Amino acid sequence: MNLKNLTQIGIALSGEKDISKLLGMIVDEAKNLTAADAGTLYILDEEKKHLRFEILKNDTLKTRSGGSSSMKITLLPVPLEIEQKPNHSNVCSYVALTGQIVNTPDIYQAQGFDFSGTKAYDAATGYRSKSALVIPMKDHEGDIIGVLQLLNAKDPNGGGIVPFASDSVDLVDSLGSQAAVALTNRRLIQDLEEAHLDTLHRLALAAEYKDKETVLHIQRMSRYCAILARGLNLPRSDVEIILHASPVHDVGKIGIPDAILLKPGKLDPEEWILMKQHSTIGAHILSGSQSRLVQAGQIIAKSHHEKWDGRGYPDGLAKENIPLWGRICAVADVFDALTSKRPYKEAFSNEKAFKILKEERGKHFDPRLIDVFFERLDEVLAVQVSPLKSLF
Ligand code: C2E
Ligand code: SIN
Ligand code: SIN
Ligand code: FE
Ligand code: FE
Description:
The chain is of the alpha+beta class. The protein is about 50% helix and about 15% strand. The chain folds into two domains: about 5-185, 2-Layer Sandwich (Beta-Lactamase); about 200-385, Hypothetical protein af1432. It is elongated. One succinic acid (SIN) binds near residues 304, 308, 322 and 366.
């Protein structure tokens, strides 16, 4: 086991979106790193009063409990305080309270710690717990968010159960921190998403409804944005943000009279002045939010009609002065507008649209993004054919 593996594990953990799968991965990786036969994970509850049992995996018993498992062994929550005193007798609670690692060769010989939970588990299952390694999971602020308990280190040479080696302790300590950071990040993202995704989605729908554009337009356009963002090697969290925030780019069209929005022909100059206000109207609608997603939506609404050469609106920004999200959205939005039917135009063929994108490289569009678009054309075309298929 080496540093590279630990790094790979860290990357894998930070990429897992589903918290229950993430918890399972943490236990699996900790078991693998230390050759432990079993692993249990506890998470500190919101009130910081109990350690809540999350998951238990045991190779010998071939069981997996907690999370999405149907297995019925559920360990009780461990109180951090008993009669208003720190609960130092329970080993997991001790580790959560002190941040100390406990490494014991045999829990039945352990001095000073109560392994009663483990012993009760042995009694219920016929398992025989021996060596134990219990480590705190500390996030980037040093706060302990949970405890990992590993049981029964297996001798690599088949010699049965051995004590946990000191290099295992270091590895699993690092893993515990990575796991804590991944979990904390995932919770933050989930809070954001749960609070705001639904609202953004409804706003995007409201704009479409008015514009008579279809849900598919929004789906395609947001996925083209995600493909471009991935092509720029942006971090996954940024790819997710643009995927979910770009659907609101035209929310300001809510403020545009139908006579203009749905006009079958070309707009006259006064109508055009009003129409161009949809970007600032959208930015107003989305302004002042604490949510990163809504903030991204605001930036996108405001800047998606800026042009690389400075001839766009509303601010006439040029090149890198245009927020990257707006530049990405411009390519995605125009490609989809070109290849779709609008009240004022028929759908163009892909070939005609490609020609326009290439002609506008470095004029309307960030040249790098046009390059990425054509590098990733296969993915773009896959979305065009099946816009509802999951991207990840
Ligand atoms: P939209 O229909 O979603 O179009 C988005 C962008 O796609 C347009 O932004 C434009 O950059 C590009 N685009 C659309 N159709 C064509 C085309 O035939 N040729 C080329 N070269 N580019 C095209 P733009 O121009 O800032 O327009 C913003 C919005 O204003 C449009 O959104 C649409 O709702 C409205 N609009 C623009 N032109 C007309 C028009 O002639 N008649 C009507 N009724 N509405 C228009
Ligand atoms: C959205 O979340 O509002 C659209 C993007 C998606 O469908 O994933
Ligand atoms: C636009 O006109 O929609 C934006 C052009 C760009 O950001 O490259
Ligand atoms: Fe627009
Ligand atoms: Fe659009």
